[in-house]
Amino acid sequence: MNQPPLKRLHPATRLALLVLTLVLLTTFNHPAYVTPLVAGVTLAALYLCGAGTSLRRTAPLAAAFVVLSALLWPPFIKTGEPWAHVWVYRATNLGVLYGLAVGLRTVGMLVAGLAFLAVTTPEEFSEALRTYRVPRGATVTLTLAFRLLPVMFETSARALEAQRARGLDFGSSFLSQARRALPLVVPVFLYSLRSADQLATSLELRGYHTTKRPTPYGARPASAWDWGVWTAMVAVVAAAVVIRLSGHGAVLPGRL
Amino acid sequence: MANAFDVTELTFTYRGRSRPALSHVTLGLEEDRTLGVLGHSGAGKSTLLAALAAVVPAVKKGTMSGDVTLRGASLAGKKPRDVAGDVAFVFEDFDAALVATTVEDEVAFGPRHLGVPAGDIGGRVGDALAACGLAGLEARRVETLSGGQKQRLAVAAALATDARLLLFDEAATDLDPAGKATLQAIITDLGPRGRTAVVADNEAAQALTWNEVALLGGGELVARGSPLRTLADEELCRRAGVAALNFLNYFERRGDGFRLLPGVEIGRLKYDEPPPAAGPPAVVADDLTLTYASGVTALSGFNLAIREGDFVALVGENGGGKTTFAKAAAGLLSPTAGEVLVGGRPPTKLSAKQRARAVGYLFQNPDHQIFQPTVREEVAFGPRQLGLPGYDIERRVAAAVAAVDLEGREDEDPFTMPKGDRQRVALASVLAVEPEILVMDEPTTGLDRREVASLMDAVTALNRRGTTVIFITHAMDVVAGYARRVAVVAGGRVAGEGTPREVLADDELLSRAGLRPPVAARLARDLGLDAVTGDELTRALRIPGRRTEI
Predict the structure, then answer these.
(1) Would you call B194 exposed, middle or buried from its count of C-beta atoms within 10 A (0-12, 13-18, 19+)?
(2) How far is A216 from chain B (nearest CA, A)?
């Protein structure tokens, strides 16, 4: 099976790429600078990470977020030329541009996160954290949280089905659905408690120990490619910071 | 040479309980042997296995006396991590014990944490996956596997640790008969490979291939001996709450199978077969296709008609589509193509109340269904949703509680009850809605003989009063003993249907759906009989001079 190109990198390199991408996206707050960055991250997510399915699912949400951000930020930005004034709503040109940039930047971060998840399993994420000397207890907890989430979703779905089968009408409004779903927390919570207890025993019986490092398995050592990608990305971020510090790429220079 | 383990005068009482889970149990097992531990729910099987893995009393707290040794070394003061690598445990709730996200990582977890060199891990993973029929699924995410596949994955993860003592706590509950046979073959092969196994189970027939069996009842050791003679003893099995295989009294072991004892006469039987249900159609699936959002097509061209008043068992391989059809019939899933009709109408078009009145659905795991603090409130929940007046709710609760034999326990907290009782609470809560059709998804899983009989007798009584019953099961002896009609589901469609006797005689159909007849039916067929239950086979056999009560 063909692996996406970024999957071939060491998990620690992928994590570094994610963090540096987030830094890069926060460097500028001008849409003219943020847009190409987001486009680049999206192309990388599509063609280097194979994240097409999750990007398609989140596309409507991302588009709505950009529009909302462009509309909601302006009332808080007083600088710039008046651009729109409808009843109590006032927007300046700089406010709209800043809101647009923040929306795009957040979407870029979301895309980067989805791309990372598309090429990284929780075990690889744990391996990456270990590489950066994050305490082992924390990395295993994180991995198990990833593992238990689907189990909890499944338990919740079954509990919902069980009550629907007994005539519970969840209604159409969000509030009524939330109110009626509240009692279902009980079986999900109890099952999770029991699961956590059994999981702890299972971990112990299979040799898990918080202070003992497991044998590396399946993880390739970092290669020259990893070092190359790492260096290139650091250089790109450094260049972006220099550009920003020299007074470019910001609608509002005083803001992040 | 020391035994694989020795348990001496072991008594253990869980914290907060007054009755001991195990009482003065003394038991040992030589290396490279397989011991089946059988007994009713709460007999102490899981506690015994937990003691062998140092889970009791290190993790599950309580008061313990007596001693447990592994290969001569006492486990006193030891924790599970101290026996890791020597002992592997396959839990009944296998899903909760899986720790990784991919199949390969799951199996590699044990070896990696036990310090196995990196170069050896791949081989261990490959061997374990191949032994459990999971080769090729290395990259699959664990949550995408079926229940049966997850159970086999849990076994593969245990095998990969290369432990000398393997403990299986009702590890076959979610497997179809073919899966159970595969697991049996894996466990049988452990002895010749220098491994010792202890297998806790409710089903006597599963234990026939082990070297020895131990029967537990009420926390005490009732008996220990060869599977053939111990499981044929009505009195011992009764004390342990296990279904005795009486018919084995007429057989002796021969190689891997059984041979009729010399002098036993084979009689002819007349069966009192119930007439087929003749009412109008209750549930009709017409060319039903159902594809999940994940893209998996669970049903494709599924056709089945179930008449009012029928008692139908849906059987078949894991992942064959049984549960998907049952949920579609209950209106919990919408067809992708074709249709399913309940009383002539698509259940998804009914309101929540109409649907609940039309089809009651009993889920496999009662813990997904129960959420109220008392049995009374749990059972009253459904009728309340229907907006019924108080007196009617009280009447329905009383009737439902009586139907499942839980009278006098209305104010108990269902979460503190044993699983069999929780399953009956769940059934009562469905019955209180008084549905026209009752659908049950593996209702007897994890229940002991008494609990199975209690539950199925209650359902049979309902069926006699006119309720149409559809139940999904892997327990072929329950099918043989209770169903009037059987639909065999394989590959997302109905592969065949008929009476239990017709279906259990059709080898080709059974094999296509990953099924095997119960052991009594297999032995009967070898004798040219068409008996399908142990009782029928026993009635057909006679030793001259011995009086047989019929």
Answers:
(1) exposed
(2) 7
A218 chain-B contacts, CB cut-off 8 A? 104-105, 108
ipTM: 0.78
Considering the domain architecture, whether residues B326 and B443 belong to the same structural domain is answered as: yes
Indicate whether B298 and B221 sit together in one domain: no
Minimal C-alpha gap between A179 and chain B (Å)? 14
Asked if residue B132 is part of any domain, the answer here is yes
Last residue in a domain, options B189, B218, B242:
B242
Give the closest-approach CA distance of B164 to chain A in angstroms. Answer: 13
Option in A147, A150, A183 nearest B100 (CB): A147
Number of domains in chain B: 2
Of B84, B363, B415, the CB nearest to A207: B84
Mutate which of B55, B60, B89, B101 to disrupt the A interface (most A C-beta within 10 Å)?
A: B101
The answer to whether residue B344 is domain-embedded is yes
Same domain, B54 and B190: yes
Beta-carbon contacts below 8 Å between A and B = 176
Judge if B190 and B315 occupy the same domain.
no
HSE on the CB side for B375, CA within 13 Å? 24
**Closest Cβ–Cβ partner in B99, B117, B352 for A168:** B352
CB atoms B360 and A147 under 8 Å: no
- State the best of B47, B368, B379 to mutate against chain A, taking most chain A CBs within 10 Å: B368
The DSSP output letter for B219 is T
Same domain, B350 and B291: yes
- Residues in A closer than 8 angstroms to B110, CB to CB, are 206-207
pLDDT tens digits in sequence order for chain B, 550 residues long: 689 999 999 999 999 888 999 999 999 999 999 999 999 988 999 999 999 999 999 988 999 999 999 999 999 999 998 999 999 999 887 877 888 878 999 999 999 999 999 899 999 999 999 988 899 999 888 877 877 788 889 999 999 999 999 999 988 877 888 888 888 888 998 999 899 999 998 888 889 889 999 999 999 999 999 998 899 999 999 999 998 998 998 998 887 788 898 888 888 877 777 888 888 999 999 999 999 877 789 999 999 999 999 999 999 988 889 999 999 999 999 999 999 999 999 999 998 889 999 999 998 888 878 888 899 999 999 999 888 999 999 999 999 998 888 899 999 988 777 777 888 899 899 989 989 999 999 888 878 888 888 889 989 998 999 999 999 998 888 999 999 999 999 999 999 999 999 999 898 999 899 898 888 999 999 888 889 888 889 989 987 765 444 3
Q: Which two tokens stand for residue B231?
A: 């499981």
**How far B359 CA lies from chain A's nearest CA (Å)?**
8
Q: Whole-model pTM?
A: 0.80
B200 close to B49: Cβ distance less than 8 angstroms:
yes
Range of the domain at B83: 5-242
B345 alpha carbon, distance to own chain's centre: 33
In chain B, whose CA is at the least distance from the CA of A184? B371
* Residues 6 or more apart in contact with residue B465 via CB below 8 angstroms: none
**Per the domain annotation, does B261 fall within a domain?**
no
The DSSP secondary-structure symbol of A7 reads G
Is B318 found in the same domain as B228?
no
Based on the domain organization, do B202 and B308 belong to the same domain? no
Of the candidates A164, A208, A209, the beta carbon closest to that of B332 is on A164
Q: By the 8 A CB rule, do B515 and B181 touch?
A: no
Q: Chain A: residue nearest B367 by CA?
A: A187
Position B287 in a domain:
yes
Measuring CA to CA, how many Å separate B262 from each of B249, B519, B547?
12, 20, 17
Q: At residue A34, what are phi and psi to the nearest 5 degrees?
A: -70, -40
CATH no. for residue B483?
3.40.50.300
Q: Which two structure tokens, joined as six digits, stand for B212? A: 């020895």
- Which helix (H) or strand (E) segment is B282 a member of? strand B281-291
Residues B178 and B290 in one domain: no
Structural domain ending residue among the three candidates B476, B498, B520 = B498
Distance between CA atoms of residues B180 and B228, nearest Å: 19
